[in-house]
């Protein structure tokens, strides 16, 4: 990662000058590691919230971004930009699939308008590998582009409504690409493309061709005006007969974390110039274990590239005994509270400014058969807020969120 104060490029000439300033929160306290853009030049603030950034003389636009705050953009009128105050922002979101369906769209626009909700998670790269209307050549060649959904128009509509838009990018689980381009897929040693225990096909995280394709998609998505891109399935597969898996490089507990970290570093380099926040979700177990568990995900190695971290801490997904509870889903408040506390504790470091914003369950207990409805769903939100989470996202693939789950506004 770059040092807190970064010059835009080496060998500055006489036409570049230094722009200085200090980024503060709403109480006048310094904001460390904020992203600062002067036109195309980019840097970060130091521990005192200060920055000194080389950029062309006559630069016109300043943009400042930091997790937990709204993005600020304003015109530049002097080289000394003075104190720059950011406005706090806490996302309260739901995941919504099929937002292009008019009935789904109308229902959730009404729900957001009438309640505390102020953000929405939509698929920008779906579980099947499909994306919104794309001009990326490979996406069009393999039939991954939905020709009737235009992301830029949707984002513009959401922003008119004051809604923060998070784009869920399903990463290495990509059946469309794996089927159309077996050379990019996770292979089966018996021949053909490997499938997990649910019949899903994956692409090879070691394959740099896959990275470049994803990078092209990410840049296109970032230019839509979207607020945040969130990585899902940014990991190696762990379900299915792994003894039959073949990668470009033999997979080990050492190179899997190296590869996932390197991919996020690369993806960040494609997204950051477009002034978009970056987040990722992981299994809830990632919070509780410092081992990579076969996924390649180690929280401390993901964090430097993320603004927000969203562990999927669904109580019924935890194994018996987690947190000392024989049936974790019978203790939703305690499981969520402890998960958030653990995540926050691990997200500390000199180059880390990552906030915890968990996924919460709004669906029935699928493992233990415990009663798990509105009271338990509300308990999760209360626990997350009590533990100091910076917002939350509710997930229900069936989209059956009750209005009573959210405070009226």
Please explain how this structure is put together.
The strands form 4 sheets. Strands 16-15-14-12-10-9-8-18-17 form a 9-stranded parallel β-sheet. The chain has a 4-stranded antiparallel β-sheet with strand order 3-2-5-6, with no helix packed on it. A 3-stranded mixed β-sheet has the order 4-1-7, with no helix packed on it. With 409 residues, it is of the alpha/beta class. Helix 9 packs parallel to helix 10 (374-386). The chain has 10 helices and 18 strands. It has 2 domains: 16-85, Sandwich (Immunoglobulin-like); 92-405, TIM Barrel, CATH 3.20.20. The two termini are 40 Å apart.
Shape: globular
User: What structural class should be given to the helix and strand makeup?
Assistant: alpha/beta
Number of helices: 10
CATH architecture classification name of the largest domain: Alpha-Beta Barrel
Please give the order of strands in the largest beta sheet: 16-15-14-12-10-9-8-18-17
Count of spatially separate domains:
2
Tell me the distance between the termini: 40 Å
């Amino acid at each position: 990662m770059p040092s807190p104060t970064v010059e835009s490029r080496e060998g500055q000439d006489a036409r570049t000058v230094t722009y200085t300033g200090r980024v503060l929160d709403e109480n006048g306290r310094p904001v460390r590691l904020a992203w600062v853009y002067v036109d195309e030049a980019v840097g970060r603030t130091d521990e005192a919230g200060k920055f000194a950034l080389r950029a062309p003389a006559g630069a016109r636009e300043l943009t400042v971004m930091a997790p937990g705050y709204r993005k600020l953009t304003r015109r530049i009128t002097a080289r000394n930009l003075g104190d720059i105050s950011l406005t706090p922002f806490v996302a309260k979101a739901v995941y919504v699939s099929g937002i292009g369906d008019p009935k789904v769209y109308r229902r959730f626009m009404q729900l957001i308008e009438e309640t505390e909700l102020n953000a929405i998670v939509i698929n920008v790269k779906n579980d099947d590998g499909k994306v919104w209307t794309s001009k990326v050549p490979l996406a069009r060649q393999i039939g991954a582009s939905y020709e009737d959904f235009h992301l830029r128009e949707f984002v513009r509509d959401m922003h008119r409504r004051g809604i923060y838009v998070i784009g869920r990018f399903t990463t290495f689980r990509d059946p469309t690409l794996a089927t159309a381009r077996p050379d990019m897929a996770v292979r089966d040693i018996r021949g053909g493309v490997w499938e997990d225990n649910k019949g899903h096909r994956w692409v090879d995280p070691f394959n740099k061709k896959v990275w470049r394709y994803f990078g092209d998609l990410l840049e296109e998505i970032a230019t839509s005006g979207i607020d945040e891109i969130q990585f899902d399935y940014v990991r190696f597969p762990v379900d299915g007969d792994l003894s039959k898996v073949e990668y470009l490089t033999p997979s080990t507990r050492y190179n899997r974390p190296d590869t996932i970290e390197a991919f996020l570093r690369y993806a960040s380099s494609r997204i950051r110039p477009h002034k978009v926040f970056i987040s990722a979700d992981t299994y809830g177990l990632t919070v509780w274990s410092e081992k990579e568990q076969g996924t390649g995900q180690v929280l401390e190695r993901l964090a430097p590239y993320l603004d927000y971290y969203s562990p999927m801490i669904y109580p019924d997904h935890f194994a018996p005994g987690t947190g000392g509870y024989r049936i974790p889903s019978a203790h939703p408040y305690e499981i969520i509270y402890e998960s958030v506390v653990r995540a926050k504790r691990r997200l500390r470091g000199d180059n880390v400014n990552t906030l915890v914003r968990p996924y919460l369950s709004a669906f029935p207990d699928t493992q233990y058969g415990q009663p798990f409805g509105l009271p338990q769903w509300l308990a999760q939100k209360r626990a997350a807020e009590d533990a100091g989470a910076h917002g939350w996202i509710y997930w229900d693939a069936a989209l059956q969120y009750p209005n009573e789950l959210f405070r009226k506004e």
